Amino acid sequence: MFTRELSSTIRSCLSIFPAVAVLGPRQVGKTTLVKTLLSNYSKEVLYLDLEYFADQRRLQQPDLFFQANQDKLVVLDEIQRMPELFPLLRSMIDQHRIPGRFILLGSASPDLLKNSSETLAGRVIYLELSPLTLGEVSPQYTYREHWLKGGFPDALQAPDPTAWRFWMESFIQTYVQRDLPQLGLSAQPAVIRQLLTMLVSIHSGQLNYSDLSRSLDLTVTTIQQYIGFLENAYLIRRLAPYFVNIGKRLVKAPKIFIRDSGLVHALADISDYNSLTGSILLGASWEGYVIQQIISRLPMNVTPYYYRTQNGAELDLVLVKAGKPMVSVEIRYSNDPSLKRGNTEAISDLQTPFNLVVTPEAEGYWLRKDVKVCSIQSVWVELANAGVLE
Predict the structure, then answer these.
(1) Which of 249, 276, 333, 375 could cross-link 286 (Cys pair, CB 3.0–4.6 Å)?
(2) AAA+ ATPase domain: which residues (predicted)?
């Protein structure tokens, strides 16, 4: 059993908001987290899994059900299966507005939950549960194990590479054949599988819709729709470029990442550490892994970007708080890192007061007076020292 960092946030939000939504990809551990958190809760808890017909039948007259249980905490799992409940939840909350009435668990972002964010505005807070972070699994698992297998609990705990491959393949098939169509994605599963495989080849790189369009023989609009669905299902991330008025020609395309490193490796048929370190995906995989570890723990008031000019100035990650670049991050799969000229120019452009070079294991020394080298294990300590995690 892993202790999830989101637990304390959920507990705090239940004392403030009438509804708390915990969203994230399938199999990430939302149900386990909430059931563990509520095992000794201060009031009675009712749990309904909307994937099961028996629980759906209990909501044949949902207004009467909610009224009869208005003093209990009602957990609605897989809420995206019954989006018609959102207007009723709003009415129920307005009639009896107290903190901690509902927990909503879902596998889709608010954008895919059919206007839930508008319907429940001011009544719900949306929290995202990412795959397990390195901080949550250490010291039980090393960064190498976590990076290779990814952060889905069942995948990480698979006893051997064969079991891990079986689990990941089942996960991928279920998503492309069932989950994404249920969310409204009208695409052939084989096409989505092919798109995911192509995204592996540009993982951690710039997203070019036209290239994908030509490769898959689909329109740019269709590719954009598919990418949007994958992002709203928490499978991929588009990292926007940071724009600053410095009179330079900036790259405008987002970078694309498959969020879970284990999913990257499964799609690339990489199932052991030696294969990973010998793969052409090594650098891109490491960058994506570090990016995910950092972004998954950022507070809501910090926005991640990357930075690149057409003249070659670049930084892998820029963390912006209150409109100001606070920290830049360069990611190196090397324990003897150095800065490129483009990195130095980018730091000069942005004037970030704190700059990190994240490595697998090297840490604790200054590359220069404003650039510190740290390991993936200690990056959160350094970000906290920089004031980013407050």
Answers:
(1) 333
(2) 16-131
Query: Which tokens in the block code for residue 378?
Result: 């200690």
Interacting residues of 18 by C-beta distance below 8 A, sequence separation 6+: 93, 97, 98, 99, 100, 101, 102, 123, 124
pLDDT in tens, 181-222: 988 888 899 999 999 999 999 999 999 999 999 999 999 999
Strands 73-77 and 205-206: unpaired
**Is residue 368 helix, strand or coil?**
strand
Structural domains in the chain, sorted by start: 6-128 (3.40.50.300), 132-284 (1.10.10), 298-390 (3.40.1350)
Cα distance between the two ends of the chain? 27
Within 10 angstroms of residue 81's Cβ, the number of other Cβ atoms is: 18
pTM greater than 0.85: yes
pLDDT tens profile 43-87: 899 999 999 999 999 999 999 999 999 999 999 999 988 888 998
